[in-house]
Amino acid sequence: MEVRIFILFLDRTMKKYYLLPLLILITFSATAIAAEDLVQRQGSPLIEPEVERNEIIEAKIDDEDFEVGFYGGLYSTEDFGSNSVLGARFAYHITEDYFIEFAAGETTTKKSSAEELFFVELMAEDDRTLRYYNVGFGYNILPGETFISSGWAFYTAFYAIAGIGSTQFAGEDIFTVNFGFGFRFIATDWMAFHVDVRDHIFELDVIKEDDTTHNLEMTGGITFFF
User: Cys-Cys crosslink for 67: which of 36, 51, 91, 99, Cβ 3.0 to 4.6 Å?
Assistant: First the structure.
């Protein structure tokens, strides 16, 4: 009886000794696998986004600073009606924001309301031609882009301008102040389209003495860079 109890005890004890190394081996193997997996994860990002990159086409705009062109539209001479006007402009772009512009234009006025009413001639026919010359300082308030469909983008600028000059009208050379706004649409790297509104302010003595007049001009034109 004592011999059977000893053998049973010995058998259970040996099983424990056999299981202990096996458990240690399994624990070390799991730890090694986890460490290797961690190293692999640290060597590469956890998330690899699949983002399709868009192709960027750089703008082909040259850096010419000079701009010259022509314009036409309407010039409303106070008391002498609205008439067609033609002119030319030359601009020098000092920076991306500031520019200087020289402009000259010509229009032929109609008879004034007083002449039409009283059937009189207040000036000779040759004196009805109005010419102006001015220099202005401009500032690009809102430079930006205009998109036409998804594949076409054009540079644009909304600008303010003010200046001084001279107006030849009714046989006189009259000091003139002008100011206004404009919109520039750059179609290519060498050509642009303009829409402008200007107010030419000068004193006119044809109807009455020292009459300060506001003469609005609305034009559209084309310019070229060089």
Answer: 91
Q: Which of 59, 112, 107 is nearest to 81 (CA)?
A: 112
Using the predicted structure, report yes or no on whether residue 220 has a pLDDT greater than 60: yes
Tens digit of each residue's pLDDT (9 = 90 or more) over 193-202: 999 999 999 9
Cβ(178)–Cβ(164) below 8 Å: yes
**Chain-centre distance of CA 46, in angstroms?**
41
| Residues in contact with 193: Cβ distance below 8 Å, sequence separation at least 6, in sequence order | 184, 185, 187, 220, 221, 222, 223
Cα distances (Å, whole numbers) of residue 165 to 87, 131, 145, 158: 14, 11, 32, 23
Residues contacting 67, CB < 8 A, separation 6+: 89, 90, 91, 92, 93, 99, 192, 223, 224, 225, 226
The CA radius of gyration of the chain, in Å to the nearest whole number, is 42
Tell me the residue length of the chain: 226
Q: Hey, how many other C-beta atoms are within 10 angstroms of the C-beta on 89? A: 21
Q: Which of 71, 81, 72 shows the shortest CA–CA distance to 109?
A: 81
